[in-house]
Protein 1
Amino acid sequence: MSGELIEIKGEMTLLSVLRLASADMEVIREGVQHKRDSMPQLFANSPLVVDCSQLGDTCAALDMTVLREVILALGFIPIGIRNITDTCVEQAIQAGWAVLRAGRATGAPTRIIEPLVEGESKQAEPLLNSVKVVDRPLRSGQQVYFPEGSLVILQHTSAGSEILAGGSVHVYGSLRGRVLAGIGGDTSARIFCQKLEAELVAIAGHYRLLDDIDTDLKGSPAMVWLEGEKLRIAPMF
Amino acid sequence: MSRIVVVTSGKGGVGKTTTSAAFATGLAMRGYKTAVIDFDVGLRNLDLIMGCERRVVYDFVNVINNEASLSQALIRDKHVENLHVLPASQTRDKDALTPEGVGRVMDELHELGFDFVVCDSPAGIERGAHMAMYYADDAIVVTNPEVSSVRDSDRILGLLQSKTYRAKQGESVREHLLITRYSPARVAAGEMLGMEDILEILAVPLIGVIPESQSVLQASNSGAPVILDKVSDAGQAYDDFVRRFLGETVPHRFLEVEKKGFFKKLFG
């Protein structure tokens, strides 16, 4: 056992990033509210980083205190701001923002929230867009490995089989073996199946054994996805 | 070409050899010239079940090694015409089996005019089992109603799709599921997997269900394949299975608990 009571370590954490294309507070409020209402469970109390790289000099028009209040009121937890002009830094710190170093422009697995009104909606470039379809049952001891994209299994998979995909995995039968999606680190990969009886599910290295999973989910159509560091499993219908 | 049928399971003790003997005998009884080959080199059993253990002179490995001709090694069955047994070697191991050697024997059996070649696979997924399934056109996958047997059968089905000659040619081996040692009473009591559960897991067409029966052990000990016992439920179930294999539509029997009542109706 280590004797330290606390520990501070640099770690990468997945965060939602709000990219602003307008400094108009009403536009921001409406846009964020719309996004939140479309997926309320997903975004409730979720930490948010604001990115101002598209604002340029109009950043100065942004009231940092009001921005913080607007975001809080919508149920997010504002934790930091980045890519603001030097003149705004002081105001941001005053308003309680953590000023973050500029991040990479479009890292692959960030959930992007953009104001709807201004600027055309920009989608993150999908890294893995090819699909492989398997039309036979996947038997015990068999493995399908497809790092280039998503896998679709039209039949069942057996206990002792293994599915490995760079992207998402869809199983249109019973899922009984192990299934690993996002093996290249794609945290947006998901697993879908008609009948969840898997031994192990994993996305981007985060795994769970079915033993741990709520038993009433077993045998029902389910979806598995990654929410932050946590693997979530929910019925689909 | 002769039609090559492998009887396989992965797991041991589920009834592969009993099934191979009954199946080959059933085919021969219907007039098809049939050879049954024991691939369990080193653990020879088929000759006992067929009752020809005292007539083994040359064996499968001798033929592969060109130490004897195929016709010297084939043993004519004493119960049924048209049936020949190619016994395994008891003193060798499975490394003696090679794809080339087995392929040559298959070609020769075809030249000798055999309609069916039944390959009795050893347990496991190693060389012996691999060689037994390699040239197969059809596979009879023998499964007992319990989880480990079902999983092993599933594994074998995967190998049939990837490790056989047909699979390598981009074709597929026809798969048939045969459930053996099925006890409807124990299924009803929840002690055994039900037929539906097995079918759900394996998703392979069912070709027969052989009930658990005393007559199987008696038949093995007396060296007469159980299919020759026309009175026993297992013998009749094997006969149904052979007819289904040959394309007849035969309803499944012996799936209900009151099988005794059925016998009373027939023979009582």
Note: DSSP finds four helices and 16 strands in chain A.
Protein 2
Amino acid sequence: MGNGTEEDYNFVFKVVLIGESGVGKTNLLSRFTRNEFSHDSRTTIGVEFSTRTVMLGTAAVKAQIWDTAGLERYRAITSAYYRGAVGALLVFDLTKHHTYAVVERWLKELYDHAEATIVVMLVGNKSDLTQAREVPSDEARMFAENNGLLFLETSALDSTNVELAFETVLKEIFAKVSKQRQNSTRTNAITLGSAQAGQEPGPGEKRACCISL
Amino acid sequence: MAQSLGEDLVQDDSSSLGSDSELSGPGPYRQADRYGFIGGSSAEPGPGHPPADLIRQREMKWVEMTSHWEKTMSRRYKKVKMQCRKGIPSALRARCWPLLCGAHVYQENSPDTYQELAKAPGDPQWMETISRDLHRQFPLHEMFVSPQGHGQQGLLQVLKAYTLYRPEQGYCQAQGPVAAVLLMHLPPEEAFWCLVQICELYLPGYYGPHMESVRLDAEVFMALLRRLLPRVHKHLQQVGVGPLLYLPEWFLCLFARSLPFPTVLRVWDAFLSEGVKVLFRVGLTLVRLALGTAEQRLACPGLLETLGALRAIPPAQLQEEVFMSQPPDEPRPPRRKPQTRGKTFHGFLTWSKGPPLTGPPRSHRSSTSFSDTRF
């Protein structure tokens, strides 16, 4: 498989970060991929990317995370970003109720543009700001359960649950993929993301196996 | 002139990546560079900048041109254009930008408008979004470090004023960096009218609720790529990199977050004089610098590598003189007989030869109102 480069991986999973502007998507991403946090992280215009490879059992999974702009008008240009995503973190700011109130709209947006089997986690970010909480945990958890979503509260600032959130989503995707593979007599691997249109891998690059659920 | 200068200066790669504050590195205790970026590296006019006597000469030209601006624009626009391409001397940008974009006309015609808008209370919804973004624009620029500083306060005033001036348009986050760069050079009122002109005259439909013109121009950009850089176009298609993955930030922010700051200013000089085509030229040049050779494309077998390459062009190549004197890209020769009706392309950033790509000096979308108000 791999050819000894710094990154060998068995799977590439595309995960999108969505949610209102200012809820902390960019910092969740930088905390997960670079262990960094910035109060002044610049506004996301369009889309940003980052990757991190994690081990799930014996499999190396490369998480390809797309961080999208949250302001409503960007939806006109961001719908293209959902294509091929197998996971999503729908983030709200648990100190600002209005970012939670629109979660349903984001879900619809997601299901309109992504595949129906996408693994979605509802993420209440900024759990470090305990005094300012406006969204009760139970309420959000209930909503997640009723809508078949995973749920966690995180803090990109103090790192609480950030690893866990991404890993849970990746594991869930991995489980789905494994199940799908078992059910399939033939490996049902469809390239996505990096090799979506390119069916001709470059020399020595035939190492990634991207999965579409 | 610019070209020969640029050729001698390739070694100098000390240009500040100050426009991208995250690349400038930390440094609250460090001095600001000559553009105001704390810890930026453009502290002195180094070999990357024209010699002092040349700057002086250009300043004199600009003083002369701006002393009777309307006449200059109506009779000697070509000269203005060429001078803009060479770069407006930094001492004169504050005077020239409002003149170039026509903001001064609006300001003269509505002398009280900005003050009224600045005093009026803003729509709470927009105020909240704008306030949340204030500290996220160029946080390492000395003007924008402090929440109470004139940078962030000016930004709040100007962006709020725009949402009151055009309530149906509201606020788009990409206006933040644009307004911030304007405020680095202009007082809030001038900056406001320049922002109005950029949003309504130069790039109508870019920042509105549906951003339809960005999507349209992304398609146009792809068509240009197909024609001018066909191999790169094919590569981008193969790896699934559509223009919406990289172009919105470039165009919406007028490259303010994507190029070293001295180069940003040069691009803006040309943009304010010639309009949106400059954005296309710069964008095409960036794509070519990142993916123009077969080796470069081979090193980018996938989507992420390709997008990474578009964001990781060596700073030396983006240094202002080097970048602004990029050689022309020739379209592929026609397969059969030469076409006589098609336009000839003379490169993206080098304009010295051949006829201009477009005729009148105006934004590609605006028509009558442009000439009415500007010239």
Note: Chain B touches chain A through 43 residues (CB under 8 Å).
Protein 3
Amino acid sequence: MIELENVSKSFTLHNQGSAVIPVMERVSLKVSAGECVGLVGASGAGKSTLMRLIYGNYLAASGRVLVGDVDVAQAEPRQIIALRRETLGYVSQFLRVVPRVPALDVVAEPLLAVGTPQDQARDKAASLLAELNIPERLWSLSPTTFSGGEQQRVNIARGFAYDYPALLLDEPTASLDAQNRATVLRLIEGAKARGAAIIGIFHDEAARDQVCDSFVDVSAFSPEVAA
Amino acid sequence: MGAQVKEQDMTPLLQVNGLTKMYGPRIGCKDVSFDLYPGEVMGIVGESGSGKSTLLNAMAGHHAPDRGEVVFDTRADGPVDTLKMSEPERRMLGRTDWAFVHQHARDGLRMSVSAGGNIGERLMAVGGRHYGEIREQAADWLGRVEISDTRIDDRPSAFSGGMQQRLQIARNLVTGPRLVFMDEPTGGLDVSVQARLLDLLRSLVREMGLSAIIVTHDLAVVRLLADRLMVMKDGHVVESGLTDQVLDDPQHAYTQLLVSSVLQV
Amino acid sequence: MSDYNFAYLDEQTKRMIRRAILKGLAVPGYQVPFASREMPMPYGWGTGGVQVSAATLTPEDTLKVIDQGADDTTNAVSIRKFFERTAGVATTEETTKASVIQTRHRIPEAELTEDQILVYQVPIPEPLRFLEPRETETRKMHSLEEYGLMHVKLYEDISQHGDIATSYAYPVKVEDRYVMDPSPIPKFDNPKLEMAAIQLFGAGREQRIYAVPPYTRVVSLDFEDYPFEATKADHPCDLCGSEHSYLDEVILDDAGNRMFVCSDTDYCRTRRAEGHVGRLGESEGEAA
């Protein structure tokens, strides 16, 4: 489902003497449907960068980034937009939303984007928010006013509202209490069971071991090692 | 919406080819080409004088460009170069399938005509001759842009800036256009009013399956509204791509400068 | 007579105006620009109508001039005298005897015939002016037949007054093409715009001439659910008893007594001569 072949990434800082900073080289990995791969490696090794490359948020310098049959490294913006709408979900560490939109609608949005009727989308959003212990009185408020932990759970609910065939999870269990952590792990296992290919970053080792089928050490892709 | 978009995916709604507009020896915009597909929202950013407004006005038929094509996928005849259309055809397009939202609501509204009359004008322009139906639609659209229908007979001069801008949007969208040009739609509005307008635009775009081209200098606006981004400098497109990719991983020196110049809140 | 050229204007000017008139007749409802001359009367007193009349009159014509239907008001009297002096043409107050009738704000009640010409004085010829101040834009709207804006005006009327409150200068569409301002005639007169006589419109200040040839279709704009109605005061004439003529309201005293009389003085006089009598007619008749 997700397959990277010989991908490299560098940043060119035009405004700082055109310095070229290579950050990753020779990245290859493969995640099949129903499989969860954990990215490991020291902080700064490029775990989040790799996720952004797969999501199309960063532009790969070379190589192929296949999600389904789309090569994200080469695709037109509209292909990536369609991919993100229908195939590839991403739970980042930060929630970015339009101010003033109620939490319920933030969570329902991915469903509405694929044409789910509004009431159905809202029902699903409501059940996810309830499952993640967001008090019902907050549902009609914008998450921009929520605490960090609440925002993160809204973000997770949004990521799991629609059944993406492929999912990227960046620290989904960080700073959650035991109960919510268990819920998130249950959601991840549910996604795997229905055949989603998942790439995750987990600092929480117990969680990592519970849901991941294999691990990729990102440090291996750093240019220093390659040189 | 997803399903609809897929079916039409193959034909771009708008194809801009080599569009060039000169002001004497000075470049307005040069060799701009892109395709816009149904349901896509594209942002055009750049500083004042970068040519983004010139480009928008040339595409919308407000100024005649010197070279290039603006091919629109018309309902009746499929893709047609709008620059080669007769003026009546182009103006008809401007009242039906196209809409233009001006930065200053005053430029896009009739200030001496009531809110209802402003919204109803496009309906009457395409042959609406039933007062009751026109008024009903006007009231419905006031509701959709979050203006109380008790204000239907008030003139826009009695409205706040944010309300005027929402009224302008209602006036433009009432005939169900497929392509909306927007020139700094949130410029000059308070931040809280901007947020409300952005939310409104986003939901209208999704509900109506609109395609839109939004010119702005506000990167936060395009991040929230636009799927794709074009960065302009000195009349040229220096970079284009997926909005978040261009903003988070800018490739061109100018884009890097632009992105790094934004104050972080 | 005098040292004036016939009908005051020089022959070249009349020729220029006649060309504008012919073009106007060829394109019914279209506003033809013309080089309006300074006339020896102020703008607003009918300088456009006077120039059209001057270009239309021949020495054999009989001229009638009315202002709001009346032959005896200042404006009508002074224009009639102007042409008596400068053209030496015969004048009349009888509608049926006139070959050229210059009018301000009315169409005579008596049905006009094919050998008559009705000349209107027009203050503002552009019906779209109220909503679109740019001349360049209104011209484009006419040429492209973009008339949605005209209905916006009617919409505004209904939304503000409950019905179409425009009671004069009510916009019409001529021969399915041009939207035209019929000059400030009451909308009661609008149905009469489809007539046997030639109708010429002259706007002196705005330098426009337009025309409606005989038997041309002239439709008053309206909405399906608010159809056009040619309204008048719901009264018979207090002098001649006519139920079908346009009426002026006249306040008689401080106690609120009032009367309604035909605005067309010739029509009223003719009816009374035929023996028709209204509510207050008899005493008037005796006094006269």
Note: The radius of gyration of chain A is 18 Å.
Protein 4
Amino acid sequence: MISILFIVFLPLVAAAVAGLGNRALGNTVAKSLTTGALFVSCALSWPIFIGFMTGSLSESVTPVLHFITSGTMDVSWALRVDALTSVMLVVITSVSALVHLYSWGYMAEDPDQPRFFAYLSLFTFAMLMLVTADNLIQMFFGWEGVGLASYLLIGFWFKKPSANAAAIKAFVVNRVGDLGFMLGIFGTYLVFDTVSIPAILHAAPGMAGATIGFLGYRFDTMTVLCLLLFVGAMGKSAQLGLHTWLPDAMEGPTPVSALIHAATMVTAGVFMVCRLSPMFETSPTALHVVTIVGAATCFFAATIGTTQNDIKRVIAYSTCSQLGYMFFAAGVGAYGAAMFHLFTHAFFKALLFLGAGSVIHAMHHEQDMRYYGGLRKHIPITFWAMLLGTLAITGVGIYGVGGFAGYHSKDAIIEASWAAKQTGAFWAGVIAALLTSFYSWRLMFLTFWGKPRWAQSEHIQHAVHDAHGNGHAHDHPADEHTAPEAHAHDAGAHELATGTAGYHPHESPLNMLIPLIVLSTGAVLAGFVFHGWFIEPTAGEGFWRGSIAFNEHLMHEMHGVPVWVKLAATVVMLLGFAGAVLAYLVRTDIPARFTATFEVLYDFVYNKWYFDELYNLLFVRPAFAIGRFLWHKGDEGTIDRFGPNGWAWVVQQGSRVTARVQTGYVYTYAFVMLIGLTAAVTWVIAG
Amino acid sequence: MNGFPILSVMLLVPALAAVACLFLGASQARWLALGATLVNLALGALLWLNFDIGGAQWQFVEHHEHVFGLFGWSLGIDGFALLLIELSVFLMPICIGASWEAIEMRVPEYMSLFLFTEVLMIGTFAAQDLFLFYIFFEAGLIPMYLIIGIWGGANRIYASYKFFLYTLLGSVVMFIAMLYMSIVAGTTSIPALMAYDFPPHVQTWLWLAFFASFAVKMPMWPVHTWLPDAHVQAPTAGSVILAGVLLKLGGYGFLRFSLPMFPEASAQLTWLVFALSAVAVIYTSLVALVQSDMKKLIAYSSVAHMAIVTIGLFAFNTQGIEGAMMVMLGHGLVSGALFLCVGVIYDRLHTREISRYGGLAINMPRYAALFMLFTMASVGLPGTSNFVGELLSLMGTYQVSTTITLLCTTGIILGAAYMLYLYRRVVFGELKSDDVRAMPDLSSREMWLLAPIAAVVLWMGVYPESFLAPMRKDTQTLLARIDRAKPAGDSLPTKGTGIVPAAHAETAAHGEAH
């Protein structure tokens, strides 16, 4: 398949040209080149996806270049295309192309545009390498490549200390996951004597029930391998424990959050588990762990989402929570449903992020929702787009008829967990759906409804001041984010003074609105149109054709679940909506009173369950302290003291040679030594 | 290449130039040194092109017996030696270029010493006679000792003394072991000794004697403390050659002597190598994290990287040994490049204090881009040279010990932490002071130093086959030799039953029903 070469390598070429050309190339050329490349990739990807849906295409592997051969390990650069890849191809190239376009408007005032677009395209290339990998090593290449791009883009505004810290955190926390991934690769090679994915998946069922030694103990082989690989997936997909980097990653420009930290990169873990699903199927223990981690993350992140004030952080925790859904879907064996949710989520979450970006753009880089309010009439297109996104994520739909994207995919996951008799995961999913609805509508109401509360925002004050002053454009990127801590510590946004401070928000330009409109279409239709191929028993089997361990039986069971199970997600969605209406539209004093009453609980959730503080205490600070200790007490205080310095002292007491060295006669000394050495050797041998 | 003594010529060219330099002025000495190293680079290319991959084990052999009393002028290379010679001749012109403006005092002597270093390095890798090797190997530290001692920083005497003391002490025991071996085996030919079987109990003592020397050269924990001082005090080019090539002598020694000559002892003492390496990875990475001096930080990171070499070598399998070689090559390029990066800004501001810098991405974008590439290569990002080596080396080690692999793989986390932390403090952030603001971006001379390394780093990362192919047969030869002592791994996987274990009985039942 030739087109896959263009799909994957066009973004790389564009990134290289734009990145190396940089300012010499100019903004317009760099932007046109990268955006053009992505639209071509996207246009070439959809026919492949449609080809797999209609059954006219079958899996193919396009060789590119020989990579590593060492002993029996033989790896090539190759591009694998099957149904699973085709899903990822359209997700990645579509969202990436739209994000490129959106960035024309969003980054219009940035002095470093070629660099930004080069990074975006580089990311897309790495992500495509990841999903087309035919072996674990290339997958790891893509895995680390997207990590690099994520690091560069989070820290894009490199003058900001908080952005730099977030970038490092993202990379290092991901590396913890990569440690697991690498060990998983080593173990897989040891057991299967290959790193080729098809070969491993083919041999995996036969390896069930085997045991292996690991760290001195013996375990079930497949459980060890799957769990090691899953640690990698947890890092990349920000699952409980390794999630701390994702909210901080919001330091990056908003288009980056939409592309990398919502639609594509963070789903790589889910993709990996689905890609290797025949391996996971051989280890019920590993699947249990995947289910539990997914369900726990799903619930945990949703709770935090209800308390955050930064609009991007709310969506970030929402992403974390939705990824949890995908994982527990995979854990209960509903890989089709996991991929389906990945697919729909990419559209509506990218939409929500880009919509949030549009709001931030309109509000002069203010991100704190406490200073929003009443924006509905000022930025109507953004409002409608975000409304559709919210309807999609909360899963609005009518039983038996159909609904927005999330209605099809999220409800499928909740039903599948019931059908697989994973009651715990089922309830976690239902409660998370309640919370999802609540925090999503809370975001909408705080932003678009009520009276304007802009007067208190420093960003708005700056904007107004500048407008009254010399008209100097205030576009300092360091202002995009204001730490929530900087503001008064409370959730009762409504106590703040209302008023517009004379500021007039403007709707975003067309190049930002078009992506919103396109993604809105996806958020409305993606679930209804595509659910057949992803999760219907027969159509699904025909579509996936073995690229995931599609459990036709479970998909049948899903249809047989009790009606109350099917309705559960919709009911809690309505409850969450009602709660948000009550708290943020009708009785706006409730949040403040609630916070005051349950202060401890609120603080716990608001401070993100204190994970960052805990990790700082357990890992970061000890690492520096131990490092300092080993340096001063180990190297200097022990090794040097009793080693070379001790020797020097001994020698100095009685030797003139050392004294001469120290007075600088190194030449003579060295010359004598060389002669002496040669003479001694010759003499010993000859003699 | 019939009959053309290319290895001798590669020794002769820099040797003659080294002597000639002493009689020239500063400017002429620079040009002569550059010319000579470039000639050697061309000869190196010729050597590689004519190397018969998969052919005879020893190629370009030159043998003149009893030139120096009992031992002869005996040269010849296999794939391992070839690659390390290529690394040396590649880095040498870059070192000369790096010293072009930075060295103003005693230029002819300086150039002469560098050329002399090149002779000794190539000699070490090409020597086929035990004592010829010893002379090249040990004499290699003399020019470096002088380079640090004369052109070094403020505390150069202490550093050069420490460097000298450590390396010499190790070499004395090794020399005694060599004498014993030549007498017992009745030959000083390295290929002959590589096939000679010493009794196991003797092997242990000989192994330890060689270990004393190689561990210092490597350097392995806890005999590593000379390295940070030597690097900090050495001039930029000295650091490049020290990290790039001299640190590879230890690894080469293990590969050439310890493993093939003492297979039983190597297997028996693998635990020692593994333990010291695992400590080194974690210990020196943590120490690197808290450094405030750029060169010290990179020096400590070198110790951690070299530990990945030693575990790979003692894994007794293909991936381990080939991976170790790849780490050596990759680290030679990348740490060399990182020291050059430090040198670039040191030349402008004359300080290695990390906290004095910041915001260089603003006024030095080209520098920032290249420094980023080498930083990423140093943390082993796939697509760069170091990834291939680390992957293979750790993969090989996993087959022997999962615990050691786990401990050593933490290096990828810690490595990312200290390198990105360094990069952030130097390159990101705001420009803090006027003198930093005034620093110009890379000159074309500096681009010529860094760009070739960047190209090779990517080449090795994307198509490492060019580098793996020459050593493939030698790895198999070595493994055939040491296979009898190969330790069993701790994984010991059993065969699968094909029956998915219980705990999920209903799902399994579904599968069957379906």
Note: Chain A touches chain B through 100 residues (CB under 8 Å).
